[in-house]
Amino acid sequence: MDTITSLQEELEGYKRQLASSYIMDKGVNDYLLNELKERIKKDVKFSHIFVAIPNGADDSIVAAKKKTIDEAYERLQAGAPFENMVRFFSEDKLTSEAGGDMGFFTAMMPNGFYEFESMLYNTPIGKYSKPVRSRIGWHIIKVTEERPARGEVEVAHILIRKSTDPAGDKTKIENIYSQLQNGGNWENLAATLSEDEQSSRGGGLLPVFGINTYERNFEDAAFALKTPGSYSKPLETRAGWHILKLVRNHDPLDDDNFKKYYEQRIKNDDRYAKTKTSLLSNIRQASNFKEDLALLQKFGAGLDDEFYTFKWEPKSSDLMGNTLMAFDDNNKYTLSDFATYAQKNTRIRLRYDKTVNSIEEPINALYEAFKEEKTIAFEQGNLEKKYPDFKSLMREYEEGILLFEVTKNAVWDRANQDTVGLANYFSKNRNKYMNEERLLGEKITIKTNDAALAAKIYKDGKKKSGEKLAKKYNVDSEVLTYEPVEILKSDKESEKIPWKKKTITPMESINGSDTYSFTRIEKIMPASQKSLKDSRGYVVADYQDQLEKDWVAALKAKYKVQVNNDILQKIVK
After folding, report:
1. Buried b (16+ CB within 10 A) or exposed e, 542-573
2. In a domain, 512, yes or no
3. Cα-flanking dihedrals φ and ψ of residue 176, to 5°?
């Protein structure tokens, strides 16, 4: 079975689909998750020299800012004190007088700060980094201290907001603290005395937070609490006076949902694209990758405005057979391969406008996409060597495809195509396929607000059919309708019906409205055997089950299976 071309192609299709996502998961996603898991084990304290780059800055401004940060770095290299360079160069006015001190930070940092975060975690204590760019500007980082990560904490608080009477504010919070020390109930005190309206009803509970969420003394007091239920002494912040109570310490590393929580954040962060680019670059470097960009430039020079439209088709030329890129001696792609890719990929081509974009822009975008696709395709050939679990996964797919095909031939197709076998199976098991006992009749529906008329029709209905009743009573308007009904013995409705022919059910008013109904029973049909034609779907399904049981029994007789029960029971345990 494994030599059938269609099955080999199907398996190869699955492999292509799986390999691309697998490369990204293993090479990018898992790498970043593992990296983040290591980084969040510690908090890092640092100072920085900061040179801002305004949003929308033109090239001249960006170049000038780069020159400034490079000058600061050169002076540091020449021995200038870091604190002096902060005061002279840094545009962070909040920290420049404090030597650029930013306090403790931890991963994961916001989008646009991945390179900053990497530099922060890779710079030794007491050392400063090379200039590193974030989405807001340039930084030189000096790491001053490290500590085990505080993680996250959940606390409740009682707040007395600042007023025009500072002494009175302090007295209020001290009175609350005294009540707590004398056995006062936290929830009651928070509900009645806390001036944080959003949290007071919930016992003062605040959302889970990590470092750099609140003021430092508030954070220090929260993380200093070690036992759930313990509370702090009163402390003052810009908002007012607080007493904190520990609810629980939360360590992200101990959270079973670590991957679930961080995976999507990572994919939406610039670190994902940067790491993906690095991964693809490493694959190409390891494969002795070569490319002919001059050939690509010649191809672009021969294009016209039609390239921006659906109509464009590549023209034949002597260049088309030339190699555009190669991963090794056995994996080469010609200019013709790229041109075919560009023709099919209208999604990228039509993003560009001939009045705004030069021809080089769509060409470069298409080439980068083409190069990425072929890089992943090249790496696919190495996946089974690099990752045993991918090899096992592909084996499962291959065996699944083969099992499906052989079962299709031995069971499913045979059950539908073997008419003689199906007829024999039906003949032996025909008592399984029966028409249930049922009654045939008609339902009479009366629409009138005249209860006496409804009763008269019901009385006539004991002897007359729906058709005769309609002729008699539907003279000026349609008072009644009738429709045939078939009710099985197993139907719940049959419990309310007298199982006797030539009788009628009691008349009912439908939801108390001006509509009445009753059922006339004409015939009682006894249970009977179905024909093969009427029960074919059920017979085929049962015949398939029997064929499969017989087939598996024959396989077991032919291929003896031995089970190591000791090992099996260990798995069960």
Report:
1. bbbeebeeeeeeeeeeeeeeeeeeeeeeeeee
2. yes
3. -65, -45
Residues 136 and 157 in one domain: no
Q: How many domains does the chain have?
A: 4
Q: What is the CATH number of the domain that holds 188?
A: 3.10.50.40
CA-based torsion, 526, 527, 531, 535: positive or negative: positive
Predicted model pTM: 0.60
Residues 6+ apart with CB under 8 A from 469: 444, 457, 460, 461, 480, 482
Where in the sequence is the domain holding 328, given as residue range(s)?
Answer: 287-384
Report residue 256's pLDDT band, with 50, 70 and 90 as the boundaries.
low
Tokens of 541: 């399904």
Domain boundary among 324, 358, 384: 384
Residue 252's pLDDT band (cuts 50, 70, 90): low
In a domain? residue 191 = yes
Of the three residues 365, 384, 403, the one that is the final residue of a domain is: 384
Q: CA–CA separation, 550 vs 543, rounded Å?
A: 10
Q: For the segment 2-43, what is each residue's pLDDT rounded down to a tens digit?
A: 888 888 888 888 887 787 777 777 778 888 989 999 999 999
Sign of CA dihedral 305, 309, 312, 317: positive
User: H or E segment at 186?
Assistant: helix 186-193
| 430 pLDDT above the threshold of 80 | yes
Tokens of 207: 């959302």
Q: Could you give the CA distance from residue 264 to residue 268 in angstroms, rounded to a whole number?
A: 6
